[in-house]
Automatic annotation (TrEMBL):
GO terms for molecular function: hydro-lyase activity. It comes from Marinobacter guineae. Residues 15-24 have a biased composition (Polar residues). The keyword Lipid metabolism applies. GO terms for biological process: fatty acid metabolic process. Keywords: Fatty acid metabolism, Lipid metabolism, Transit peptide. The lineage of its organism: Bacteria, Pseudomonadati, Pseudomonadota, Gammaproteobacteria, Pseudomonadales. May play a role in fatty acid biosynthesis and insulin sensitivity. InterPro entries: ClpP/crotonase-like_dom_sf (IPR029045), Enoyl-CoA_hydra/iso (IPR001753), Enoyl-CoA_hydra_C (IPR014748), Mitochondrial_ECH-domain (IPR052377). Residues 1-24 are annotated as: Disordered. This is Enoyl-CoA hydratase domain-containing protein 3, mitochondrial.
Amino acid sequence: MSEQSGPLVQKHSENGITTLTLNQPERRNSLSMAMLEALSAELEAIAADSETRVVVLAAKGSVFCAGHDLREVRDQFDSHEFQLELFNQCSKVMQQIVNLPRPVIARVAGVATAAGCQLVASCDLAVAADTARFATPGVNIGLFCSTPMVALSRNVSRKHAMEMLLTGELISAPKAERLGLVNKVVDDQVLDETVYKLASTIADKSAHTLKIGKEAFYRQLEMPLADAYEYTSKVMAENMMADDAQEGICAFLDKRKPEWKDS
């Protein structure tokens, strides 16, 4: 097995797009405690970075992410404290992605299983190569994918989520697209082109507006219908007072390109 080369999570920023790349292909980019802590630190930094407008989450090698590091888990079989800390840390990272005031796009090439599938489901958008595959196979080793279930069940229908969770079987990228786990499936040769075209389209919008919209989207999902409308009405009224909303409306009426202030 080759030695680790470079940081566990590589970071590259260009044109308002920050790419975070899981960089432990020799360990199938598994979510060890160290990987989770590295990813958490990068997400925390991005949350405070006004230059980043969109985040792309990628991975090196033929596996996007195989879930938790089972060797690490096995070494800590006797420590309930470690196991709880590991799953809490993983849950923290998934919530950081959802709560990040920047859209996050998963770039999926290869296999995404267990917590790796959870990682894809936690991102706001996902683009997959046609060779990618997905599964929540914990049931096969006696460890039900309970935390991956949270993100999965919020992206696909209950019966499809239960089928994945109960069988543990791999599904193809086209099926994942049909179920709503990913937005788009493309040939591997145009994966980067597709991902970064999507990222650039989003990065061209007002960062302030995107932040408002992403937060409101996830909050209203958990509300009863009447509460959701009451909440989003308040959000839109507040949004209308923002510089970028007023600039955008004036630019549309004047038939010109808006000049965002991100405020």
